[in-house]
């Protein structure tokens, strides 16, 4: 079992610390801009295809490694549209959350692995060790720059994304314990 936190700096971080980098667009951004300003439509299409293929390949490899190693996968339920409306559209779309979730979903289905999206409210703020919300935990948009923090209650030191993934895993486990029937048919 493991949890996956979707993000912008890294497209995904798992509860055991694996990271899927985002930013496939950034490496070719300058070339794309030059081709767009020169009105070279074929070159623009070729660069977009390269970006798409690089993102798709990275997500398929990441998803396959997860499906091969785990029987239950819980992913944080993120609203892409609300993130786009908040002014981070370029980063959100480049991260490719929808593609990653769809890829994980179908690979899990083929392999007989349980896949579920769970609510991720307060997962970055709650300490994954003691379950308390510390005064030093990241809160809201103002604290997006806080990448690491320490819990005042138990003294645990956390990476923001790994902590969120562990809390997503805990929410997923609670849902399984609460009576969701696990079977091979979905």
Any overview of this molecule?
With 186 residues, this protein is of the alpha/beta class. The protein contains six helices and seven strands, in the order E-E-E-H-H-H-E-H-H-E-E-E-H. The protein has helices at 24-27, 29-37, 41-69, 80-95, 97-111, 160-177; strands spanning 2-6, 10-14, 19-21, 72-77, 114-119, 148-150, 157-159. It has a five-stranded mixed beta sheet with strand order 3-2-1-4-5. The chain has a two-stranded antiparallel sheet with strand order 6-7. The longest helix is centred in the N-terminal third of the chain and has 29 residues, at 41-69. The model is unreliable at 182-186 (pLDDT under 50).
Overall radius of gyration: 18 Å
Q: What's the helix-strand series?
A: EEEHHHEHHEEEH
Q: Characterize the main sheet.
A: 5 strands, mixed
Count of DSSP H/I helices: 6
Q: What proportion of the residues is helical, as a percent range?
A: 40-55%
Mean pLDDT figure? 81
The helix/strand class is: alpha/beta
Beta content: 15-25%
Q: Please report the total strand number as a whole number.
A: 7
Low-confidence stretches: 182-186
- CA-to-CA gap between the ends? 18 Å
Biggest sheet: strand arrangement: 3-2-1-4-5
Give the overall silhouette: globular
């Amino acid at each position: 079992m493991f949890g996956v936190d979707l993000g912008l700096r890294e497209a995904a971080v798992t509860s055991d610390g694996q990271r899927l980098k985002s930013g496939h667009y950034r490496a070719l951004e300058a070339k794309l801009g030059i081709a767009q300003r020169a009105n070279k439509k074929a070159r623009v299409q070729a660069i977009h295809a390269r970006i798409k293929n690089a993102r798709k390949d990275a997500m398929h490899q990441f998803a396959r490694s997860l499906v091969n190693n785990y029987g239950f996968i819980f992913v944080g339920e993120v609203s892409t549209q609300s993130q786009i409306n908040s002014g981070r559209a370029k980063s959100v779309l480049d991260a490719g959350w929808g593609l990653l979730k769809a890829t994980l979903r179908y690979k899990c289905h083929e392999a007989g692995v349980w896949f579920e999206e769970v609510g991720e409210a307060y997962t970055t703020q709650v300490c994954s060790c003691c379950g308390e919300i510390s005064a030093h935990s990241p809160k809201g948009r103002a604290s997006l720059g806080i990448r690491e923090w320490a819990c005042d209650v138990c003294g645990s030191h956390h990476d923001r994304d790994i902590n969120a993934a562990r809390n997503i895993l805990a929410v997923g486990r609670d849902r399984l314990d609460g009576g969701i029937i696990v079977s091979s048919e979905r």
